Amino acid sequence: MGDFITMIALTDNFAVTPDDLLRQHLLILGATGSGKSTSAVTILHDLMMQNQTTIIIDPTGEYTKLPHAVVAKLGYNAFIDYEQLTGAEIAQIFGVTEAVATEKVVDAWQSLKIQNNVVRQSGVYQKINRPWATFDADAQRLYDYPQPADMHLLPEQLQQEFAVPTDDFDLIGQTVDQAGFRTLLPLIRRIKSQTSQPAFQQLFNLPSRKKIATVGMRTDVMYLMRLFSSQRSEQKILVIDLSELADNLGLGKVVVSLLMTALLRIKQTGTQQLPVTVLIDEAHRYLLQQPGVVDGILRVAREGRKAGLYLMLTTQSPLDLPAGLLGQFGNYLIHRLNTATELAQLPALAPLGQRIALQQVGEAILAGNQFVPPRELQIRQVAAMQHQTASPKFF
């Protein structure tokens, strides 16, 4: 695991090492307008100036004007390559949470890959009257690296996954369990609706049956994350702009989880041991809280440190985060919090409760395992790193 090599000046006369500040992850808390975004970019600036790799997950596009930003706007000039997704990830995209439905989507996605890459014919992979031995041989011929498949055929393929035998158990099936298939009709409608939308096709780089207006060059965001994770940043920040997903928060949550899971995989399997810091702004928007689904943010919080992947989350209140995630943070930068209920989530700071509630814009308390006793700070502003956070004024 690589080491940080610089200092971060939080105020004009107080600096910390990135190791102390970030190695146990950093949670930046504060009510709207308290200065938490300014604190985040101050930290990012000092990391960037020392060529430390930083990635921003930006929900609104407010960080896209930062100097030296490489902006990947998902659904516009950047995409997630659907060919690299697993069947379980495909299920998440379409909002599947039940175990049985997830298993059917996983099987259907595998079948479509077999049809396209092994059988090499259009249409669905027929399971009616197909021997298990033939299917097993076809599945063995699938290779591990990404393979294309026709996502538009997923509803039709799902019907094949309900094939059941009647008297010949060497066959996958001889008829379709129509009653079982009907339980997936709401999912079928979602799949058909979403895969027909140009915005969805742009986001996942799906082949479109209609011509879609695009920018000249579009980039796989996974490629950009691999690139930034494998070398010094040359004073650049990767900003992944999610503003195109603002009207579909459910899909946005899945996308962030996919990105974090992919980034963790990149770091765990990569040969370069460089530290990577990820800022997820307004993180409470993007936490998956579905039964049986492990959120990518939580996975990074639990497993990322060993791979040199460090989280910096901003959110308005500790109440926004589940206890399992809140407990993964060793350090806190706390701006103004307005209620006693919020302060109760941070019992170690109870003696400073009154001070936290009265903090002015830009004032913060730095606390945590590396900062005992807590320090009261007036966070410095970096003029070059101003970003679009101010609310419009009436006069």
UniProtKB/TrEMBL annotation:
The keyword Methyltransferase does not apply. CDD domains: TrwB_TraG_TraD_VirD4. The keyword ATP-binding applies. It comes from the Bacteria. Residues 22-335 form the AAA+ ATPase domain. It holds the Pfam family DUF87. Keywords: ATP-binding, DNA-binding, Helicase, Hydrolase, Isomerase, Nucleotide-binding. InterPro entries: AAA+_ATPase, HerA-like, HerA_C, HerA_central, P-loop_NTPase. GO terms for molecular function: ATP binding; DNA binding; helicase activity; hydrolase activity. This is Type IV secretion/conjugal transfer ATPase, VirB4 family.
